[in-house]
Design brief:
Layout (H helix, E strand, L loop, with lengths): L1 E3 L5 E3 L2 E2 L7 H7 L11 H10 L1 H15 L9 H20 L11 H23 L6 H6 L6 H27 L11 H25 L3 H15 L6 H4 L5 H8 L2 H13 L12 H21 L9
Antiparallel strand pairs: 1-2, 2-3
Helix pairs in contact: 3-7, 4-5, 5-7, 5-8, 5-9, 5-12, 7-8, 8-12, 8-13, 12-13
Amino acid sequence: MSGTTHDGGVTVGGRPSPDEGLSARELAAKYGLSVSGARPGLIAYVRRLWGRRHFILAFSQAKLTAQYSEAKLGQLWQVATPLLNALVYYFIFGLLLKASRGLPPGTYIPFLVTGVFVFTFTQNSVMAGVRAISGNLGLVRALHFPRASLPISFSLQQLQQLLFSMIVLFAVAVGSGSYPGLSWLLIVPALVLQFLFNTGLALILARMGARTPDLAQLMPFILRTWMYMSGVMFSIHTVLAGRPEWVVRVLQVNPAAVYMDLMRFALIKNYGAANLPPHIWAFALFWAVAVFAGGFVYFWKAEERYGRG
């Protein structure tokens, strides 16, 4: 028989309960209770993410479908937008500023289009990552799931969009005389490494954007500066010839330039190894692993704070 003592303690059979006098924290520890929404360990977190893999894929596909649902041309804008940008850049940089100098004849158009498509992949992943948490607070507050699912899903959405656009990129390359060969197989590892890099960057910016939503307004200016420094419209080692060697090397090994160069080398027939900085695959692997691993841990450390406040 149990009851309650005059001071609020619980009795069992007339005797004080063995739990009497324990604090709430001690009681929770004794019975294996944990704080709702508490951050799990890193390995457990990875397992939870893997368990949500079907949700991540379905969410990315739904976002991709809905992105242009109200436009008459629909998903054709996935291709039309970077192509229109490439056309503008060709007029300004290719015709007016002669940025094609130093490149083999007939390669500037595929060089430019490849650069625009590849940089757009990173740019869109970054912008989607900034808003991954702050733009989905209703979902974050209503449901319990690993929050990293959102930035990863948005990066996957941008990868699917790029793969759709690759049809046009292949057509531009073939139209310029670069036909499929063994070098085209390098597209796969280059895209995998860039996807890992983009996802890590999206995770970093998702945490930063969750705390500072105004970051989304600043990012277009940062990305535009990054684009001009990465050789999207010109060959870095040609245009900067005569500048200090360290300046050229720093710009060539920045991740956006690295992944563009790898894709250009794979796709464009006359874009030889002489246009690539030394050890480019090592840099591509380093950026992918370092940014993805660092971004994942950085995001995970704030898991319990997303959606609060």
